[in-house]
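Run log // design_07
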């Protein structure tokens, strides 16, 4: 029956299969391969001609819940993974692979049979888009790097797609999330008020030409501190960027306009323009290429573009490692032709490529880690304590840690202690680098995971003090409060989800025991958690137990769909921005989901409650 149910789940999706059919055998490789990514530009691995019949479809079961199918090639390398997370006999996560790694994931978060979230992961990138009306077009980006934002911008110009461009723009909701007001907010609103006109003007000037993205050049991001913005948070911005594009064999520059960071996404503030940027005082773009004056450099950049567009052929981790090494080789050639003062962003790309090669699984070429280590050593000698050195050294540490934890049979506790020692040395050597903020949070989180709360509190406290005006510092301060919260009043104020949003604070559940549950729909654990919470509420709700759930999806609709399907009552709040959102920062949360148990007196009973054991505490509190 289990195999029948899963076959029906696959066969009930897509016009190539019979709707709702149920068969005992798994789908064939050709049936699985008929499913294509809904988003353009996704290039998953495909079997070579004649190899499709040697592929295998295997059943996979989730941990506790969920099941699906995995398609593997003749070498056992994964090509596709289609999964039913909630056991409703319908696939709701479609994963596409290249080089044995997942590169793209399409998610049906409201379980209606149509994907509404799209994620690019691992070598596919870091984009995360939401398609709220399920028409296949991204309406909102909840994760987007500056490079990927510029790529989306060029695609929107090439297609003349105003809706695609609109999804990249800052919104009034973003300004509200950023807590931005005053002159800064007014200035930004004035810019994006004319953004669509600039977009249409740029499309018109290109007269039907289809630009293809080649390269983005940015300076270092600029930080506007809180006392300049009137916000609780710093404003991180790129005042300008220039994009090198190909126009039918010749190159041209496009201006991206200003970008600002909102949560995990970089948003455009204004529309694009044709031509290179006139450099203003303090606005020189590090790493800028003058290709017109250096044909050899142009040739090297064109070759880099070709490498970036060339997917791995055999779909193995070893090929992924070779691809990253090839890219690092090409980047080093570009670095060699540039002026020393312009090399910084390109050396960072070298480090990223070497780190990617080193983390390509058990078949990773050991040369990658050797070269990354040599680059870190070279910079440590030439630029001790510098930001570029910190960037490369931190990538080396991360790659080494990732290699060790992926090896079967390793002593996980020993690896964690070694990771703490190496991060400690890093923050001592680079006390003011951007990577130190992340390193301190990692130190706090790992120490907390190992049960070393005193050490965790010290690391979080150091981050909160050293980076008080940064989001990481605010999160660290929240983590300190969280670790010290038992016996203290629990403070939480937000806005409810639903047709009539309303203000809420914990005083509204005064006199009740409260489960406070922070969650997001992208973590499938929440589905099972809500089933357990519902059962607990049915037992103890009449005895004075209340649920306060804080959904951290980018849009409230994503959270509402899960809540309605789970059928669980209580108070449901919405906070956009995932772990970088306002409420998560205030509580210093490092992972989702997270539970607090709050007593009738409004004080925290358990700062890190677990659903497996929470009933014991609830039973005592509701007597």
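design_07 sequence
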């Amino acid at each position: 029956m289990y195999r029948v149910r899963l076959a029906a789940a696959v066969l009930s999706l897509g016009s190539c299969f019979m709707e709702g059919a149920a068969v005992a055998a798994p789908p064939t490789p050709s049936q699985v391969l008929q499913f294509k990514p809904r988003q353009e530009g996704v290039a998953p691995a495909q079997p070579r001609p004649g190899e499709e019949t040697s592929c295998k479809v295997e059943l996979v079961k989730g941990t506790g819940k969920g099941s699906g199918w995995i398609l593997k090639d003749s070498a056992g390398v994964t090509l596709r993974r289609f999964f039913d997370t909630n056991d409703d006999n319908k696939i709701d996560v479609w994963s596409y692979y290249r080089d044995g790694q997942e590169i793209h994931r399409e998610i049906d978060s409201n379980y209606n049979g149509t994907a509404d979230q799209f994620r690019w992961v691992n070598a596919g990138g870091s984009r995360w888009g939401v398609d709220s009306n399920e028409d296949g077009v991204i309406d909102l980006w909840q994760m987007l790097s500056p490079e990927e934002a510029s790529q989306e911008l060029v695609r929107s110009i090439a297609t003349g797609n105003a809706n695609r461009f609109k999804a990249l723009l800052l919104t009034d909701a973003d300004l509200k999330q950023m807590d931005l007001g005053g002159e800064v907010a007014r200035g930004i609103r004035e810019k994006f008020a004319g953004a669509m006109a600039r977009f249409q003007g740029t499309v018109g000037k290109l007269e039907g030409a289809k630009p293809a993205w080649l390269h983005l050049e940015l300076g270092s991001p600029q930080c506007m501190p809180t006392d300049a913005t009137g916000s609780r948070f710093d404003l991180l911005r790129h005042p300008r960027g220039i994009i090198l594009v190909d126009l039918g064999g010749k190159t041209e520059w496009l201006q991206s306009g200003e970008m600002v960071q909102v949560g995990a996404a970089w948003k455009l503030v204004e529309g694009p323009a044709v031509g290179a940027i006139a450099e203003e005082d303090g606005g020189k773009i590090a790493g800028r290429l003058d290709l017109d004056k250096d044909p050899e450099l142009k040739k090297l950049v064109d070759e880099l573009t070709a490498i970036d567009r060339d997917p791995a052929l055999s779909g193995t981790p070893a090929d992924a490692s070779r691809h990253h090494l090839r890219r690092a080789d090409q980047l080093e050639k570009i670095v060699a032709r540039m002026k020393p003062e312009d090399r910084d962003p390109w050396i960072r790309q070298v480090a990223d490529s070497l780190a990617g090669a080193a983390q390509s699984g058990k078949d990773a070429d050991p040369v990658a880690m050797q070269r990354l280590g040599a680059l870190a050593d070279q910079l440590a000698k030439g630029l001790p304590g510098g930001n570029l050195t910190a960037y490369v050294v931190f990538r080396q540490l991360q790659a080494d840690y990732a290699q060790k934890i992926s090896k079967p049979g390793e002593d996980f506790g020993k690896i964690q202690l070694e990771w703490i020692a190496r991060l400690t040395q890093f923050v001592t050597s680079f006390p003011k680098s951007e990577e130190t903020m992340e390193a301190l949070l990692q130190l706090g989180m790992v120490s907390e995971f190992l049960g070393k709360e005193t050490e965790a509190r010290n690391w979080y406290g150091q981050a909160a003090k050293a980076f008080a005006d940064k989001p990481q510092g605010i999160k660290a301060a929240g983590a300190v409060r969280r670790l010290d919260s038992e016996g203290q009043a629990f403070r939480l104020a937000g806005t409810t989800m639903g047709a009539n949003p309303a203000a809420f604070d914990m005083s509204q559940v005064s006199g009740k025991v409260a489960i406070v549950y922070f969650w997001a729909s992208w973590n499938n654990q929440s589905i099972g958690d809500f089933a357990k919470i519902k059962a607990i509420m049915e037992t103890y709700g009449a005895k004075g137990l209340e649920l306060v759930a804080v959904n951290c999806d980018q849009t409230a609709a994503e959270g509402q769909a899960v809540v309605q399907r789970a059928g669980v009552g209580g108070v449901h709040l919405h906070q956009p921005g995932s772990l970088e959102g306002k409420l998560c920062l205030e509580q210093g949360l490092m992972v989702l989901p997270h539970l607090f148990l709050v007593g009738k007196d409004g004080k925290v009973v358990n700062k890190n409650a677990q659903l497996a054991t929470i009933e014991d505490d609830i039973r005592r509190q509701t007597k």
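The chain has 21 helices and 23 strands.
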